[in-house]
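User: Sequence recovery, please. Input:
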């Protein structure tokens, strides 16, 4: 009985597999399955049609190689389909394109003229089944170091790899399904990078004007220092990690699901960081105009000194930790569920509010008002020096080492100690 069930299961799965394969063949060939041809090149089997091909194992070979002059070239555009794009460099005066693939019938086309060179692949689809390959379809471009024009690299379903330092004009790198990796530094006029399904890793220094990095599903990682006119980073599902110094104009970093970590010092025009589900860590000193950090679910840590015009930190679920802060304007901390821990703060006004969690603060010096409120938790500060103060708790004690100015200190349920 058991053997019969196993045989029946194998039969059903075999029929389903055959049905799926038939659908794939018909779909890729534009419903022209009878026109498909079987090829046996000695290292794999390829079924090919007008709409695409299905590869059973095999390796790729060099199909085409062409070189192009740099004379008058100002814009380079490369568009792949399923191939990855790999960029290397040379010391000559010609740009060389090499195409490695399974299918000898599909070659890239090149349109040169008017200061442009457009390299493009056809839109044929490919599916690899039972593939055991030691290489994959790719376009390799060897670009002279002397080329400093604009660059656009678009891999629809493939990765993009830049192997060395690059110094270009306006630069755009895109993938629909694949990762983006730059092993060297990127010096660009502007830099726009987007990956729908895949991460972005920039290993070397980034030096550019307006810089925008976006992923739908994948982590964004900068290993080297970042210097740019403005910086916008967005990751829908994945973290953002800047592992060295950041020096930029107005900066915005946002994740829907993933942590944000800036390891080195950051000097920005304005800095706005938002994480819906994930924590935020700023590892060293932060300098800027308006600094705003918020999370829906995740703790916030500023481990160095924040020097700014204003500082606003808020989290719905998570704690707040700030080493020290010097601000010419307002400093605001707010948590719904989590404690607040801060060192010495100098500002125009200081506001710290916690719904469920205590507050432990250093010396607070404000030219205006100090407001400390806690619904459930104690409030402790080494000093609160200002012309005016309002310090209240609903459930928890209050301890202030040094208190100056006039105002109110009150706890509904807890001990109050000042001085």
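Assistant: Recovered sequence (419 residues):
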């Amino acid at each position: 009985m058991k053997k019969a069930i196993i045989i029946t299961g194998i039969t059903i799965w075999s029929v389903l597999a055959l049905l799926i394969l038939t659908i794939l063949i018909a779909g890729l060939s534009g419903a022209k399955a009878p026109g498909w041809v079987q090829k046996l090149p000695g290292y794999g089997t390829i079924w090919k049609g007008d709409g695409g091909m299905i590869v059973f194992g095999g390796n790729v070979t060099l199909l085409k190689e062409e070189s192009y002059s740099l004379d008058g070239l100002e814009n380079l555009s490369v568009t792949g389909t399923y191939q990855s794009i790999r960029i290397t460099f040379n010391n000559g005066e010609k740009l060389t394109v090499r195409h490695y693939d399974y299918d000898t019938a599909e070659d890239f086309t090149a349109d040169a003229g008017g200061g442009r060179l457009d390299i493009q692949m056809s839109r044929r689809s490919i599916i690899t089944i039972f593939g055991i390959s030691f290489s994959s379809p790719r376009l390799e471009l060897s670009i002279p170091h002397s080329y400093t024009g604009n660059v656009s690299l678009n891999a629809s379903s493939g990765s993009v790899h830049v192997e060395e330092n690059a110094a270009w004009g306006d630069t755009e790198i895109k993938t629909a399904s694949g990762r983006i990796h730059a092993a060297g530094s990127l010096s660009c006029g502007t830099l726009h990078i987007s990956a729908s399904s895949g991460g972005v890793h920039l290993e070397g220094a980034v030096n550019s004007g307006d810089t925008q990095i976006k992923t739908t599903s994948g982590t964004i990682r900068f290993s080297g220092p970042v210097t740019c006119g403005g910086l916008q980073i967005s990751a829908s599902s994945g973290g953002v990690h800047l592992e060295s110094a950041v020096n930029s104009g107005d900066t915005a970093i946002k994740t829907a699901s993933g942590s944000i970590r800036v390891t080195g010092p950051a000097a920005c025009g304005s800095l706005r960081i938002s994480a819906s589900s994930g924590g935020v860590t700023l590892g060293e000193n932060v300098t800027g105009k308006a600094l705003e950090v918020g999370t829906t679910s995740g703790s916030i840590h500023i481990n160095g000194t924040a020097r700014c015009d204003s500082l606003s930190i808020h989290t719905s679920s998570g704690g707040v930790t700030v080493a020290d802060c010097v601000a010419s304007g307002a400093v605001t901390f707010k948590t719904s569920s989590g404690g607040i821990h801060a060192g010495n703060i100098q500002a125009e006004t200081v506001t710290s509010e916690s719904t469920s969690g205590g507050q432990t603060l250093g010396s607070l010096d404000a030219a205006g008002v100090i407001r400390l409120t806690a619904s459930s938790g104690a409030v402790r500060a080494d000093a609160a020096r200002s012309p005016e103060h309002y310090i209240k708790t609903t459930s928890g004690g209050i301890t202030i080492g040094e208190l100056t100015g006039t105002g109110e200190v009150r706890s509904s349920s807890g001990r109050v100690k000042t001085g």
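The two ends are 86 Å apart (CA to CA).
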